[in-house]
């Protein structure tokens, strides 16, 4: 299980633009190409392209 971190304001805005609720997600990995996020309740990992 990967440990997630809290989102920054810019990351929250990015998730809102992708129609995701930033309150429900933690950040795992953030690279210039993609963002890996973890859902707080279901523990599912999602990779978003930037």
Give a verbal description of the structure:
10% of the residues are buried. The chain is globular, with a radius of gyration of 10 Å. The protein has 50 residues and is an alpha+beta fold. The chain has one helix and three strands, in the order αβββ. The mean pLDDT is 95. 18% of the residues lie in helices and 34% in strands. It has a three-stranded antiparallel beta sheet, with no helix packed on it. It has one domain.
What would a concise description of this structure say?
The protein is an alpha+beta fold and 50 residues long.
Key attributes of the depicted protein:
50 residues, alpha+beta, 18% helix, 34% strand
Task: Give the helices and strands, then pairings.
Layout: H1 9-17, E1 25-30, E2 34-39, E3 45-49
Antiparallel strand pairs: 1-2, 2-3
Give the domain tally. Answer: 1
**Largest beta-sheet characterization:** 3 strands, antiparallel
Task: Give me the Rg, rounded.
Answer: 10 Å
What low-confidence regions span 5 or more consecutive residues with pLDDT below 50? none
Percent range for helical residues?
10-25%
- What is the oligomer described by this structure? single chain
- Average predicted local confidence, pLDDT: 95
Question: What is the tally of helical segments?
Answer: 1
């Amino acid at each position: 299980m990967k440990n997630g971190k809290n989102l920054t304001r810019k990351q929250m805005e990015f998730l809102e633009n992708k129609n995701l609720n930033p309150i429900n997600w933690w950040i795992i990995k953030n690279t210039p190409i993609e963002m890996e996020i973890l859902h707080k309740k279901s523990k599912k990992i999602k990779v978003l392209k930037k």
